[in-house]
Amino acid sequence: MSKVWVISDLHFGHAKVAASRGYASTDEHDKDLIRKWNSVVRDKDKVWVLGDCAMSKRHLPKLAELCGTKRLVGGNHDLFHLEYAKYFEYVVAMKVYDRLEPLPVVLTHFPVHPYLLERFGGNIHGHAHHATVQGDHSALYLNVCAEHTDGYPVELVDAAHTLHWNLMLGHNSVVP
The CATH number of 4-169 is which of 3.60.21.10, 3.40.50.150, 3.40.50.2300, 3.50.30.30? Predict the structure, then answer.
């Protein structure tokens, strides 16, 4: 049976991000992310990349090394629209899973305003890297940037369960 996964902010080819994640080089960073991805994702699986996959066109071919059918929720660094067709089944601004159990979610790159979450149970997002959404509505958000997942994609259903528990407990925990 196929699975659906999520991860954000791969940042292939980004020297500052690689260094902030503890890697000596972008090559080491990128190879490790590819290894981690392929250790959990199978060819029949689908993976939502929630933005910021590569910093330049020359790093896009690394996406072909990743298992599964890839889908992109565009981020602020995703500027190579025509080239993405080679690597992604499709590219969208956001994705709604309104029949997901235990609660409906919206997948985005940027965390969305709490007002927009009235019809969803929560927001699975990226963009913030090491940070998490703070404040009264923090339990509505789950950051799946590679910094929060140790570079591994996370099963969408596990992310939804984490959001569900966050809401029940009233706080923002990290990805399982």
Answer: 3.60.21.10
